[in-house]
């Protein structure tokens, strides 16, 4: 299928609302992190949003790590 | 503290075999929630780093699979950097395809009005609205292989009144041109020539400038990578502190 249109792709193929809710920014020990909630309601770190370069060297939060959320749910 | 705890536990291994499972699971929980006293990193770094990556997101939120730079994240960070007296300089790393004009210009204006020394590096690509962001810093670098696409402003979305929209776009383009020419050594004429050049991009107008070409046209100050950029930033910080001392005297 070819669509000839000036409309942006995301307007035609809209993403579900649920997809947006998966990702959010949380503050963890003073460091803003972009996290994604997985099936077990744990947060997986996607990106470190801090501007401090030393936060990227901290091995407590590397992208891909899972922060347990079990105590809250 | 938790290291000692582990050592004790392994020492008592024979006596308390069944109990061993529980505390370690508990400890894992404690660690993951960040409640143990982990050694703090020694000092706050005086140079902060801002990465402008992926698409620059405007009023429309892009689907989560896109990598985006959101202005609602960047601008509060810039405010915090301006306010924090411990931070002396800012390094901006760009690898962006461009995106929303208004959001891009907002970030550029914030960067150019920052009172602390700023240095930008374009790595990979600093296309379309990435150009004003790159030139907004006090000094700009481009990696030898990095590219910047300069092209006219376009619009995707609903167009109601064609002449009005055209005029609006033209004004918006002037804003970008004015910003870039004000903050870099490129002349308005050269920039417009690059913007409306034919034959460089397939079936489109605009130019793709690579590394040294961007420096030759006056858009970017120098070719270089992280080493040169940090060296320059440290020089600028020193210059700034000398200036402050002179003011005090």
Task: Explain this structure.
The complex is a heterodimer of chains A (73) and B (249). Chain A is an alpha+beta fold and 73 residues long. Chain A has one domain. Chain A has two helices and four strands; from the N terminus they run H-H-E-E-E-E. Chain A has helices spanning 9-12, 17-22, and strands at 23-28, 31-37, 43-48, 66-67. Chain B is of the alpha/beta class and 249 residues long. A six-stranded parallel sheet of chain B has the order 2-1-3-4-5-10, with helices on both faces. A two-stranded antiparallel ribbon of chain B has the order 6-9. A two-stranded antiparallel ribbon of chain B has the order 7-8. In chain B, helix 3 runs parallel beside helix 4. Residues 1-21 of chain B have low confidence and may be disordered. Classes of the chains: A alpha+beta (73), B alpha/beta (249). Chains A and B meet through helix 2 and strand 1 of A and helix 2, strand 1 and helix 3 of B.
Characteristics of this structure?
heterodimer, A: 73 residues, alpha+beta, four-stranded antiparallel sheet, 2 helices, 4 strands, elongated, B: 249 residues, alpha/beta, six-stranded parallel sheet, two-stranded antiparallel ribbon, 9 helices, 22% strand, globular, disordered N terminus
Question: How would you sum up this structure in a few lines?
Answer:
The complex is a heterodimer of chains A (73) and B (249). With 73 residues, chain A is α+β, with helices and mostly antiparallel strands.
Class from helix and strand fractions of chain B: alpha/beta
Mean pLDDT of chain A: 82
Q: Note the main sheet of chain B.
A: 6 strands, parallel
Query: What sort of overall outline of chain A do the alpha carbons produce when their principal axes are compared?
Result: elongated
Number of helices of chain A: 2
Order of strands side by side in the largest beta sheet of chain A? 1-2-3-4
End-to-end C-alpha gap of chain A: 44 Å
Task: Kindly report the greatest chain-chain contact and the residue count on each side.
Answer: A-B, 27 and 27 residues
Q: Give me the side-by-side strand order of the main sheet of chain B.
A: 2-1-3-4-5-10
Strand fraction band of chain A? Answer: 25-35%
Number of strands of chain A: 4
Strand residue content of chain B: 15-25%
SSE arrangement of chain A, N to C: HHEEEE
Alpha carbon gap, first and last residue of chain B: 49 Å
Q: What string, H for helix and E for strand, traces the elements of chain B in order?
A: HHEEHEHEHEEHHEEEHEH
List low-confidence stretches of chain B: 1-21
> Oligomeric status of the shown chains?
heterodimer
Number of domains of chain A: 1
């Amino acid at each position: 299928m070819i669509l000839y249109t000036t409309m942006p792709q995301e307007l035609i193929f809209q993403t579900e609302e649920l997809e947006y809710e998966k990702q959010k920014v949380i503050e963890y020990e003073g460091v803003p992190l972009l996290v994604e909630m997985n099936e077990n309601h744990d947060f997986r770190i996607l990106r470190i949003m801090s501007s401090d370069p030393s936060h990227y060297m901290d091995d407590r939060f590397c992208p891909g790590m899972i922060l347990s959320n079990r105590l809250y749910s | 503290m938790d290291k000692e705890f582990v050592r004790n536990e392994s020492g008592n291994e024979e006596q308390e075999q069944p109990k061993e499972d529980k505390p370690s699971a508990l400890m894992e929980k404690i660690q993951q929630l960040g409640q143990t006293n982990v050694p703090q990193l020694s000092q706050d770094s005086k140079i902060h780093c801002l990465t402008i990556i992926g698409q620059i997101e405007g009023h429309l939120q892009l689907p989560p699979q896109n990598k985006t730079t959101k202005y609602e994240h960047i601008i509060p960070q810039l405010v915090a950097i301006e306010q924090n007296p411990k931070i002396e300089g800012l390094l901006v790393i760009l690898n962006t395809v461009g995106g929303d004009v208004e959001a891009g210009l907002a970030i550029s204006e914030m960067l150019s009005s920052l009172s602390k020394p700023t240095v930008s590096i374009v790595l990979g690509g600093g296309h379309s609205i990435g150009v004003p962001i790159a030139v907004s810093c006090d000094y700009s670098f481009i990696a030898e292989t990095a590219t910047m696409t300069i092209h006219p402003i376009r619009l995707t979305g609903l167009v109601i009144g064609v002449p009005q929209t055209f005029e609006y776009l033209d004004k918006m383009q002037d804003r970008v041109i004015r910003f870039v020419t004000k903050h870099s050594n490129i002349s308005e004429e050269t920039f417009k020539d690059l913007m409306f050049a034919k034959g460089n991009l397939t079936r489109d107008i605009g130019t793709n400038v690579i590394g040294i070409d961007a420096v030759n046209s006056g858009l970017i100050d120098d070719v270089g990578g992280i080493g040169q950029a940090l060296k320059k930033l440290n020089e600028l910080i020193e210059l700034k502190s000398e200036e402050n001392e002179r003011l005090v005297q």
